[in-house]
Amino acid sequence: MPTNNCYRVVVPTLIVALMLHMWPLPEWLEYARPEWMVLVMIYWALAMPEHVGVTTAWIVGLLIDVTQGAILGQHALGLVLVVYIIHIEYQRIRVFSLVQQALVIFVLLILKQVQVLWVTGMVGQAPDLGLYFLPSLTGAILWPWLFIVLRDIRRRFTVSRSF
To answer: Is the pTM of this model over 0.85?
Structure first.
């Protein structure tokens, strides 16, 4: 299958994830905002590891850094770490049930957040830890639905192999 077809589907889903990432939420709900870009990148790294890899993760991570006004490279490093782990273990993770995958996603999201926390702490900007890890929980809860939606999109546009 042509690579162009792959990116005609992956890029729009990342753009939608970026829009969800930047969508204004009420202050009380802001702490629970899932990391949409990370979740979509995890899906594509699992579904098409030969097309979506560490380079794509670095670019998307830099985009997250720029949109959040964060230290340049902190989210990029975290996303590269997550996608690298996905690439090492994707065959094992793909055979898990959606609930088991959600648990793995939860751990990966926590790992990314700890790495981002470490970088911000190194420069003296550590946030309040009260609800810091709540996005990891909401991301894990949303994973089964996001997985189904993205899988249906991938199948509708016949991108790569079936998952």
So the answer is: yes
- Token digits for 1? 């299958």
Residues 6+ apart with CB under 8 A from 64: 21, 37, 38, 70, 75, 76, 79
pLDDT in tens, 100-124: 999 999 999 999 999 998 988 888 8
**CA distances for 117 relative to 35, 61, 155, angstroms:** 15, 15, 37
Contact 74, 32 (CB under 8 A): no
Token digits of residue 121: 């702490």
CA distance 67 to 106: 23
Neighbour-count burial for 9-41, b at 16+ CB within 10 Å, e otherwise: bbeebbeebbebbeeeeeeeeeeeebbbbbbbb
Q: What are phi and psi of 51, to 5 degrees?
A: -110, -35
Q: How far apart are the first and last CA of the chain?
A: 15
